[in-house]
Amino acid sequence: MSKLAALDTIAGDVTTMQLAQATFSKQLDSCLEAIESHEELISASSIQTCLADIQSLKSDHAVLTTEFTDLEVMVDSLNIPDLQSTQPSIKADIASWKTKKMALSDDKTPHQARQFQELRDELKARRSSGDTDLTIRYIRGLPTTVNPTVIPPKN
């Protein structure tokens, strides 16, 4: 094959490749247009969905506003005094609580109550015999008669 024939073949191949490239470019452009048109449809449907959701929220808000107004009317009909009118009596109650002494204790089982009573009796007997520096303290959860000046180690 001569050089001229080889150049003709190459030129034909280049032309074929240029046509294939143009066809590919057109197909790529049509694919991009199709994607863009679908994106617009997706965006439009998303927008429509959002608008429908907003409308639903607006109608729910209207219903809740009506229900809230109805509840306010019902509460007002109960004639409950407002906080401002009860505030002085609440302050007086708190002041009276501060002056009262309160003691809190857990509930005792009958066994615990008997054990504690026995310990009180023992303490009373020991005090009457001359041990005046004694008290009842809980050590590791158990009531015990101890000298309060001697603090047992915490273990």
UniProtKB/TrEMBL annotation:
Annotated protein name in UniProt: Uncharacterized protein
Taxon lineage: Eukaryota, Metazoa, Ecdysozoa, Arthropoda, Hexapoda
